[in-house]
Structure prediction request, 623 residues.
Amino acid sequence: MLRFCNKMNHRQTIRYGGGSPFPALGLATGLAVGLAALMLLASPAAWAQGSKQEAQRLPAAAGGTDKRPSGVAANPSAVHFRDVTQAAGIHFHHERAASDQKLYLETMGAGAGWIDYNQDGFLDAIFVNSGWTPFFHPDKAPQPALYRNNGDGTFTDVTEQAGIHTDGTFFFGVAIADFDNDGYPDIYLTGYRHSVLYHNNGDGTFTDVTAAAGVGDDGAWATAAGWFDYDRDGKLDLLVTNYVQFDVDHPVTCGEKKPGYRAYCHPDSFSGSSPRLYHNNGDGTFTDVTRKAGLENKDGKSLAVVLADLNGDGWPDIFIANDTQRNFVYLNNGDGTFRDVSYSSGAGFSEEGRPEAGMSADAADVRNNGLYDLYVSHLDFELNRYYRNNGDGTFLDATIPSGLGRTNYSNSSFGARFFDFDNDGWRDLLVINGHILDNIALYHPNVTYAEEKKLYRNVGGGKFVDATETQDQAFRAPRVGRGLAVGDYDNDGWLDFLVNNNGEAAQLFHNDGATQPAAKKNHWLAVHLVGAKSNRDGIGAKLKLTAGDLVSYDQAKGGMSYCSAQDPRIHFGLGSHAKIDTLEIEWPSGERQVIRNLPADQIVTIEEGKGVTPYRYPALRKK
Ligand SMILES: [Ca+2]
Ligand SMILES: [Ca+2]
Ligand SMILES: [Ca+2]
Ligand SMILES: [Ca+2]
Prediction:
């Protein structure tokens, strides 16, 4: 999140020219977009290079095409996301721990996640909460919440019986994985000055194993974290990103010096901190290998991470979104070390060469060509960036040509995910918004703290259209949005989502499916990976699905969105294709599997070295 507090007045003057805010905003937006477009035109070399690389790469990479296959052309559609929070029995309300000191922590939390902690086939929900500060100290510390999915559309708060109880630590994010390969997913909570690893005991309870594991990340303000097997030894390692060096005991005063105008400080007021990489030793302990891996980098002011093979060499890479600093792109050398290509990658900065307020990160094959494009969300008056992957570890800022630059300019965006919400075979985009400053309206009368979510539909060819208006008032009602976790909690093949809102009630939205008759019949496949030689979660596995003229790629990735944990199953929308011709899987161990003639509309469990195993995912019971 760039620009607030001390610099605000100055920038405000530039931006609005002192005129009436509404028309001025339109003008400013238009100007900015126009300028960006001009800059695009002004760098024909970059354009030509990008197009050429893509032209060379597409046939080789995909045997496919950037164009919409005929099978999905007939499905122009929207879906209906229905707010089912109340009906589902979810009553989590994030505590923002507000104080008149305007501690930076107060406005940044928190994440949300999906975890099938009891392995009954239904995703359960977890919400991260704040904690104590010197200026907010109720008798009972705010607690995270674990909600068990009852399999009938309702959830039950099982936090206490699961043994999850925190000590007042102020938490921000969650990362889920089965780090010890025992078949039950574990919980890592990132926090201010301390983070916690909860081991899943397999009987519905968890044990805090942080001290023995050595992953407390003590002293740092941890935000996003992700699990991946960077050295491909079959054991999941942990990447923790840290934000600024903020001292809660000695708060700095920012904002204008008049009543009500004190504001959360700009990240420029604080030094950065390095991400940390913890290597899993396989005996319940981890070793901090940050320096050895070449990842020590104190420029980090990190809020999001995505762990995926970005250059296609089989080794998982690291993309970290930084606030007011260049994003980090670290490519895996395959020998336990990484090389920093942030400056040369094209994804470190905006197209104009500016570092921006990176708050979310995702990577997905949105063009169905096997190349994982990046999305990074930012503060208001910055564009959320869409970086096209050239396939060689370099990226091209395609925000404007993709159509994603147009409509979210005055919002501040946190959680964001690419996912195929209408199952037409093209991964779409959901962006969760909410400003940083609770008193932003005093500074910018036309900007609000709570903001509308944005939904974008992928129409093929690397282009998106804003589909927010297809949603109802419950979806569009402004919130101080933060964490976003996408997952199919009722196993009906239509992806649903959870949102954690700062200082507000959390939300669960059910995807009711397509609203247009033709698209209602869109097919899908979800893949539950069970690694054997590889890590049990199969994180790092690469999948290529072919169904008629649809070719779609995905990876089991770590991280994603803002401080949140996603459905671990790999979801493919298939459009009109009722059958999968081939599903090719390349496991992190190097083992390859090809599965042929799979029927659509099911969740398949695929075991490394064995193939499809008979596990049947339960369908939701009628309550
Ligand atoms: Ca469950
Ligand atoms: Ca490992
Ligand atoms: Ca789609
Ligand atoms: Ca669903």
About this structure: Residues 1-66, 69-75 have pLDDT under 50 and may be disordered. The CA atoms of residues 252 and 500 lie 27 Å apart. The first strand starts at residue 79 and ends at 83. DSSP finds ten helices and 37 strands in the chain.
